[in-house]
Amino acid sequence: MTESAKHSFQENLIYRNPEKNRIARDMLHRYTGSQVEEFQQYIILTNFHRYLQSFCDVYHCKISFGSMMQAVHAPQINLSIIDIRQRGEVIRHYRW
After folding, report:
1. Phi/psi at 81 (nearest 5 deg)?
2. What range defines the domain where residue 22 resides?
3. What three-state secondary structure class fits 86?
């Protein structure tokens, strides 16, 4: 890869491109219902909604509902969990 091509590639990375960074932050907030600043250093992805509820019970946090996913954050242990199942799927699963 030439130096100019490498430079062009690096400018387009999300963390180096302010516009792409803004779009990524907006999408994260829209999909999870959480501000970027709420996310902790460690993130667990799961597809089991009950893990989120159990986590909230233990660490006294609340579930954030986004348009597609749910998330919980426990700053006291520096951990966030994201339920990656689509939100509609979770609602259908827990309808009695």
Report:
1. -125, 135
2. 3-93
3. coil
CATH of the domain at 33: 3.40.50.1580
* pLDDT tens, residue by residue, 27-56: 999 999 999 999 999 999 999 989 999 999
Q: Which two tokens stand for residue 31?
A: 């999909």
Contact assessment for residue 46 and residue 83, using Cβ atoms and an 8 Å cutoff: yes
CB-count exposure of residue 55 (10 Å: 0-12, 13-18, 19+) = buried
Place of tokens 């509902």: 65
Strands 64-65 and 70-74: antiparallel
Q: Total structural domains in the chain?
A: 1
